[in-house]
Amino acid sequence: MAIQWYPGHMHKASKEMAEVLPRVNLVIEVLDARIPYSSSNPVIESLSAGKPKIKIFTKVDLADSATTRLWQDEFEQQRQTKTLAVDLKTEDRSEQIVDLCRKLAPKKDGVNSLVMVLGIPNVGKSTLINSLAGKHITRTGDEPAVTKGQQRINLRNGIMLLDTPGILWPKVQNEPSSYRLATTGAIKNTATTYEEIAFFAADYLLTHYPRLLIQRFQFDCLPTTEIDFLEAVGAQRGCLRARGRVDLERVSTIFVNELRAGTLGAVSFETPAMIESELADLVILQAEKAAREQARLERRGSRKKSPRGY
Ligand SMILES: Nc1nc2c(ncn2[C@@H]2O[C@H](COP(=O)(O)OP(=O)(O)OP(=O)(O)O)[C@@H](O)[C@H]2O)c(=O)[nH]1
Ligand SMILES: [Mg+2]
């Protein structure tokens, strides 16, 4: 089952965003370089349709660079869209971003261009804004939902920035995407469990990044299943309960936090080919579900028509 997190404050923030968007000249959508598809909010996409857009992939230091390039090529094919991949923790690319903003949305009749910074929770929107402003103006933090309301920041160079709270959408349709959002830290820990995320991440890494696991945990022989892997790491790290049983919750927390911090190495959680195949599966699943629902309605309709006792 997909992990969902859509609290009331996000619904409110989406409504406020929709109210301001008609006055916005340019949208900066901040995406997580590790999950560029899964961090693309379909609500933002539809509300900001027709506006020039810069898609900034943050946390490139944590992502696989070859995969990031593939995603940039894919996204650059969208209309009126430029992409930029940055490590906001160590790089200052503010000049380049400001130039791009000026090019795509020049100041008109002495009026500042309004640039709205949008994206999922914890992706780096406020960090980006602080970098563009050259000072710590808006609060950042390594957890989702740090920014609670819209905030205007005048860069005094013809650009007015709007920081916004991170928003997800009411239902993440593609189940693996919901796990990727939880793995990278966009979904509050209370909406899921570390164990659930650790099982997903271990399964993915065993298949796609076995060498990173061998390097980090010094395995002579890599465990083949996620439970064997977590038990082996738990034993290594002394996460034990009575009678030597591994404390899965403790080892899962350690593993997920190390993965999020990049301690295991640079990892991308999706490629364009993976997403293409998942979306094809999703279309089939949704068609099957619609057919089941149709059959149910028809059964109900025919029961109502037939007289009692038949
Ligand atoms: N490694 C790495 N960390 C980053 C990068 N950009 C931002 N961060 C970290 O990501 C965390 C979230 O950053 P914020 O700027 O608060 O994210 P936000 O999108 O404003 O989050 P909300 O306001 O909660 O929606 C912070 O701990 C940042 O230091 C990056 O490029 N690389
Ligand atoms: Mg913020």
Could you characterize what this model shows?
The protein is of the alpha/beta class and 310 residues long. It folds into 2 domains: 156 residues, P-loop containing nucleotide triphosphate hydrolases (Rossmann fold); 69 residues, Conserved Hypothetical Protein Ylqf, Chain: A, domain 2. A 6-stranded mixed beta sheet has the order 3-2-1-4-6-5, with helices on both faces. The relative contact order is 0.13. The structure holds guanosine-5'-triphosphate and magnesium ion (MG). Magnesium ion binds next to helix 5.
Cα separation of the termini: 39 Å
Question: Shape, please?
Answer: globular
Q: What order do the helices and strands follow?
A: HEHEHEHEHEEHHHHHH
CATH domain topology of the largest domain:
Rossmann fold
Key traits:
310 residues, binds magnesium ion, alpha/beta, 6-stranded mixed sheet, Rossmann fold
Question: Could you give a quick summary of the protein structure above?
Answer:
By secondary structure, this protein is of the alpha/beta class.
Secondary structure elements and their pairing?
Layout: H1 8-20, E1 26-32, H2 42-47, E2 53-58, H3 65-76, E3 81-85, H4 94-104, E4 113-119, H5 125-133, E5 151-154, E6 159-163, H6 175-184, H7 194-208, H8 210-217, H9 226-236, H10 248-261, H11 272-305
Parallel strand pairs: 1-2, 1-4, 2-3, 4-6
Antiparallel strand pairs: 5-6
Helix pairs in contact: 4-5, 6-7, 7-9, 7-10, 9-10
